[in-house]
Sequence to fold (582 residues):
Amino acid sequence: MSQPSAQLAGWSAFLDRFGRVLAPVLVGAALLGVWQYLVSVVQVDDVLLPSPARIWEEWEANTGPIREAAGITGTNALAGLAFGSVLGVVLAGIAAAARWFEGMLASVVAALAVVPIVALAPVLNSMFGADSEFGRRAVAAIAAFVPVYINTVRGLRQTTPLHRDLMSTYASTRWQTFRTLTLPSAAPYVLTGVRVASSLAVISALVAEYFGGPRGGLGAFISTSAATSRYALAWAYVGAAIVLGLAAYVATVLLERLVQWRLPAGGS
Amino acid sequence: MTETTPVPPVEGPVEHSAHDDASTAADDVGRAASATEVAVPAAAPFGPPPPAVLVTGLTKRFGTRKGAVHALQDVELRVEPGEFVSLIGPSGCGKSTLMRLIADLEKPTSGSIEVFGKTVKQARADQDYGIAFQQAGLLPWRTVAANIALPLELHGVSRKERRERVSELAEMVGLTDFVKHHPDQLSGGMQQRVAIARSLAEQPRLLLMDEPFGALDEMTRERMQGELSRIARETGAAVVFVTHSIPEAVFLSDRVVVMSPRPGRITGIVETGIGADAARDEALRENPAFFAKVTEVREALHGVPVAEGGREAR
Fold:
């Protein structure tokens, strides 16, 4: 076709490829720019809103403690995510096999789904003692359990009548059918549940630190820094919390991709 | 037509009566003796081998909210080892139900079904039959090879044996170059060939096929028909083949079982007389004798008696 349209197509392909990466980076940089401008030119009170540069200074000065705090929160979140996910998958497996069990569990799951972390954290933290991380992990586990359970129950129902007939003609045992048909059909759903749960686990582990338990972790440091008016440091910890949450999310997205690649779901 | 084409021997007047009369069964036995010599080399030491499928007095009703549906009524059918039998009829005539009953996927309301002299439950446990449906029903997360190997895997066949069997089967259905592909990378016809290979994995003596080519385009369909009849001949398996297509039924079968709905029952059986050894190729499709049989099945479907002279004149 004509030259300009080809050029246009080339441009749009270029924008497609780089726009996806470039656009969010530009938006982020612009926001930071406006923020810095508000503080250093418009003279918004530094106590009220520390500039990005100040926060960065604090970050650099406290890399060690930040990393340590992120490690504690991350470990709690990961332990909660792992336990909650395993529990979710196992209970969903039982629920898929026995309807009465699912009915029995429905009200518990509904209750867990709506229970606020802020309500649960103080109770669990005092239950397991001030020097135990267990309460925080339990909070993360409860938060992670719900989406994994709900998605897995749905996933375990994705087998088609045709596939079930086929397994039946192979005189396949219940366990064989579960392993070769039901579980692989559910895998994408389980992973979606885990992806949602990963962010929830990080948030829950972090928020639980506001309500007692041992000193340490990003949430605990955010609250103490803010309480002692070290706002720039508090913001640095907030930044670390964002990084941690994103890392958890990206990790589970990659896991999801891996499973999709190993167990493609297309075709008949 | 070219004169080099072997014209299939079409028998004269063909039995075309209600199937429950005794002479039909006798004919079947006699016929089987001649047709299955090649297919079943090692006959049982005592007496003739049991039929691949023996259906007696079979009735099936489904209870639905609107009342009972009479899916099958008093069905009698005998399929000999190595015989290719098609079930044909309009929707709702119970042909798929009959196949599902033979496969032990449904339970009969009354009557009995034997597969190689065993109950259907036992036959299923022993993997005496292989099955293919209208949809290929492949597991999308498995490669072609792993799909073909699925039944073998479930029955504890060793990895090495599985690999050998898969490569044999893949060659038989012409998919050797695609064993590492996933189903979504294959065309509909290729997926169906994988399903057929899978149904043959356990070397069954009976193949049950429920409109396996129903979703394919005409060209692919005809090619698959040729391949299936070659495979059936190579393996010596009996085939029960459900179809909507009259030419397909005639082309493939030794006998075409015509069924009618409400209640589902067998209304006639047409012997194609093509013979197990006759080449099922393009020439056969253009053979006047083939057309005559197509007409005969069509008339049986529509309930018009076949006039002896009229058929010869065509």
